[in-house]
Specification:
By secondary structure, the protein is of the alpha+beta class. The chain has two domains: about 70 residues, Alpha-Beta Plaits (2-Layer Sandwich); about 130 residues, Sulfite Reductase Hemoprotein, domain 1. Helices cover about 35% and strands about 20% of the residues. It is built from six helices and nine strands; from the N terminus they run βαββαββαββββααα. The strands form two sheets. It has a five-stranded mixed beta sheet. Strands 2-3-1-4 form a four-stranded antiparallel beta sheet. α3 links the parallel β5 and β6. α1 runs antiparallel to α2 and α3 packs parallel to α4. The protein is globular. The termini are far apart.
Length: about 210
């Protein structure tokens, strides 16, 4: 029998990415005992269940306030800090807009995008393919982080002091360039090495 896999998250709020008990109760009820639920390293749960029942289950999960995304070769939902400085100061509205703009886009390989609301960078954005750090009234963007493999590495500063109105276009531009020029299953860090950071800056910083 055919199965369908999709990703589930609780969204984010001050205090971090947290599933509410009632959301987990709904999840366990609607996907059924035959479903497989996998915890990922990017704050998503992967649910694999019978395809014929998936659409009804998805509707009920969304009614419970859960956010759903495709699983596999896509950009992941935004991985954030805990907004410990408060929603306004840490830029939660910008983070939500960024999540809506980038999550679930097809990509040559899974793409992790991190966001931290201050220079403490507790969301570990420098370990993500693309990392955004709010620096008072502007944003620093890092690229090339890699938390996995024997050659794990921190991302490097790609653009500094990016104004809020340019943040989404720059990040979307990076993803679009990866979509257009990346090789199938090519890691983003390897892609950067191949095309060079300067080429990427020319493509997105105009």
């Amino acid at each position: 029998m055919a199965t369908l896999k999709f990703a589930v998250t609780p969204g984010f709020e001050v205090g971090g990415t947290m599933f509410k008990p009632e959301q987990l109760a709904v999840l366990g009820t609607v996907v059924g005992s035959d479903a497989r639920i996998e915890m990922t390293t990017f704050k998503q749960l992967y649910v694999e269940m019978q395809e014929e029942q998936a659409e009804e289950a998805k509707a009920k999960l969304q009614q419970a306030g859960l956010a759903l995304y495709p699983a596999g070769m896509y950009t992941k939902s935004l991985i954030t800090c805990n907004f410990c400085k408060g929603a306004a100061e840490a830029g939660m509205s910008t983070a939500k807009a960024l999540d809506e703009a980038v999550a679930g886009l097809a990509a040559p390989s899974p793409l992790k995008i991190g966001y931290s609301g201050c220079a403490l960078a507790t969301g570990e954005p420098l370990l993500k393919d693309i990392g955004v750090v709010k620096m008072r009234d502007a944003y620093d963007i890092y690229i090339g982080g890699d938390a996995k493999s024997l050659k794990a590495a921190l991302g490097f500063l790609f653009l500094e002091r990016v104004p809020e109105e340019r943040l989404l276009p720059v990040v979307r531009g990076l993803i679009q360039y990866f979509q257009d020029h990346g090789k199938k299953k090519e890691k983003f860090s390897k892609f950067i090495e191949r095309v060079t950071a300067e080429t990427l800056r020319e493509a997105v910083a105009g």
